[in-house]
Description:
Elements: H1 2-22, E1 28-31, E2 33-34, H2 37-40, E3 47-49, E4 56-58, E5 61-64, E6 68-70, E7 80-82, E8 88-92, H3 93-97, E9 100-108, E10 111-119, E11 126-135, E12 138-143, E13 152-154, E14 161-167, E15 176-182, E16 199-206
Antiparallel strand pairs: 1-9, 2-16, 3-6, 4-5, 7-8, 9-10, 10-14, 11-12, 11-13, 11-15, 15-16
Amino acid sequence: MRCTSMTLRFVLTLGAFFSCLAGAGAAASVTFGLADMQTTGTPAQIFVRDNSARAENDERGVVHIAGLHGVQNGDDPSLEVFNADGSSLLFTLEKWRAANGTADVSPDTGGDRITLTLRRLIAFGHYSVFIRSTGPDGVRFAPLDGSGIGNDFDAKQDGAANIVVTSPEHLASGTLIVIIYHSDDQDHGNSPGMFARTAHQQLIARIP
């Protein structure tokens, strides 16, 4: 009887131990919003025609060529969208703004399991998912899976995408998850690519 009692106590103690480990990260469900200057402070990475607009430059080089301006809230949704070099992305601003989705985060061994349910992305578009952070050196991007091997995916014909990514670390409160559209249809590994040219932040969500 005493042996049974000790065994039960051991099992309960072991269960409590693993419960503590599982509780190292907190489950959360977040909703994605558009990544733009008005909502998140993200500079526009897609553009529309504007014959009066001059070329723009910053310390990194050309932001966009003349004849374009970064999309703004008041722009006509039916306008065609371009990259910073003036190449058409072959869809309208309305199509870009229609994207939405959620991320469900749950603790996993040593890190988190993130289930992405995305809708109305660019049909057959090539995407990746990154963590965005701001430090002394400015904005940084790291692949959600930690390696850049398993963070790429393609949207279906209707723009839907359902994927699961495992993060090697727990996502802290305030972490920003970014969905990046790749207009060159290429994988970029642990780099997001050239923003405004081949890489365009479309959706963003913050872990509470």
